[in-house]
Amino acid sequence: MRIRILSHLLLIIFFLLMLSGGTLFVISPISGQSSYLLPFRTMQFNAFFSTGVFLNRLCHYGRATEYLTKARECGPANNQFVSLILEQAIKNLALHHYTHGNYTISLPLIISILEQQEKKRIDDLLLYGMCLWHLKDYAAALEVAEKVVALEPVKIRNHIFKFRCELATNGSVAFQNLEQAHGSDLRSDPDIMITIGDLLWNFGHYEIAARLYEEGNLKFPAYPAFNYRRALYDYRIRNNSAASILHLQKLLSMDYTYPGARAEYNQILNNPEWPTDIFPGVFPERVSSSSLLGTRLNFLGVILNQRRSITNR
């Protein structure tokens, strides 16, 4: 009984010392002299750091950043490893808010990361610019895009990012500039063609997008996304339901489960003419295809436009 009471008392003392940041001393049972056991500030650091890493792995990024911040405060000065783990947790939290459409929350988080970097990382700049773009601060986003292209001019993803920023302000001229500078690169990958075409579509440049879809359909005939988009253009923009049905029949023969294809086909059969008072819809953004952020996240564009997604009707 006494041992149990003593153990509970020691636990209470241990807890209070941890809160106070004190240092634990014990009496040696052999010599009777006090001996240094372990600074409780170090124990605090270990507890906060381990908990933060654990929560970060469980995707509880908000709580993880809290514990890792406490670990940095009570840990060794200038601990680069802790700062690196904390930065990653903040980045995860920023991405989490970004993918849920909380751009105003994500923006200051990514800014706090960039402020700590002497040499700005491209992926962090891209996320920063994308937050600005979704918040419709297109001029600021374009400035970020120009920095990204200057730092890493080789990668096509950076030029696509710049294109999306120019597209919001310069319209179809942005596509002409992109095509003149990187025409062959744009047509080297079907996902790149789809990404650019969808951006054009979402900003109302349907004819240019349709030409790109048709070109992709000829170059990559086994890629069903081009048939689907051509069908949408023929039905929703041109009111040519016969041409749209042909594209959808070809698509369904390749992939009967393609998202939205059967629904569109039934829609045309029931209503051969697209209602003029209904918006043609927008395409969800495919970040995994355009590799803008290097993540596996999808469907970001729907939040931007506040309109119903074409493939999620």
Radius of gyration, taken over Cα atoms and rounded to an integer in Å:
28 Å
CATH architecture of one domain: Alpha Horseshoe
- Mean pLDDT, as a whole number? 79
- In CATH terms, what is the fold-level topology of one domain? Serine Threonine Protein Phosphatase 5, Tetratricopeptide repeat
What is the topology, as strand order, of the major beta sheet? Answer: 1-2
Strand content: under 5%
Count of DSSP H/I helices? 16
The CATH homologous superfamily name of one domain equals: Tetratricopeptide repeat domain
The total beta strand count reads 2
Give, in order, the helices and strands: HEEHHHHHHHHHHHHHHH
Structural class: mainly alpha
Largest sheet: 2 strands, antiparallel
The helix content is 55-70%
Low-confidence segments, given as residue ranges, are 6-11, 20-37, 287-309
Spatial shape? elongated
Q: Report how far the terminal alpha carbons are from each other.
A: 67 Å
Q: What is the CATH domain class of one domain? A: Mainly Alpha
InterPro entries: TPR-like_helical_dom_sf
Protein name: Tetratricopeptide repeat protein
Pfam family, one: TPR_16
